[in-house]
Amino acid sequence: MSDAQHQSPHLTHLNQRGEASMVDVTAKDVTDRGALAESRISMSAEAFALLSEGAHKKGDVLAVARIAGIQAAKKTADLIPLCHPLMLTKVALDFELQPDSHSVHISAFCRLAGRTGVEMEALTAASVAALTIYDMCKAVDPAMVIGPTRLVEKSGGKRGHWQAAPAQAGAEK
């Protein structure tokens, strides 16, 4: 069968027979694309103090979370069905300690020049970084809460620039 018989003319994960398939992006233009995602992990005062003072028995929690997030972004196509494998040109994670709420705000940025966006890679990086913090700190606080996790901004592609509305103040605590 030809590609036309397997792929819908619209960007969808369903082919003409209604079966799941990877979107064919061959005809799309290569553009510079970027995406910024964020997540948060909230924890007890004890866990936050160990993390922020670098006194955790497992070592530098944020350094390990940064590496885990970068690795996860590079492996997104192995984790999320129907995602395209991408040659990322940049993955960056930043952590902002928020003492008032005993939380860590995680920002993950991904970039490439390609035919499809990097939103899933940025979201995966932020999520895995939060999960890594949880894994390394769970002995001190198994009741940590992860979230919200969301796409904040994207650029490139047919739709150009998009930015989410600012998070509500109550959602940050």
TrEMBL record:
Q: Which domain of life is it from?
A: Bacteria
Q: Which organism is it from?
A: Biformimicrobium ophioploci
Where in the sequence is the active site? D135
Q: What is its EC number?
A: 4.6.1.17
Keyword Lyase among record annotations: yes
Q: Which residues form the Molybdopterin cofactor biosynthesis C (MoaC) domain?
A: 22-157
Name its pathway: Cofactor biosynthesis; molybdopterin biosynthesis
Binding annotation for substrate: L82, C83, H84, M120, E121
UniProt enzyme class: lyase
Q: By what name is this protein known?
A: Cyclic pyranopterin monophosphate synthase
Q: Does the keyword Lyase apply?
A: yes
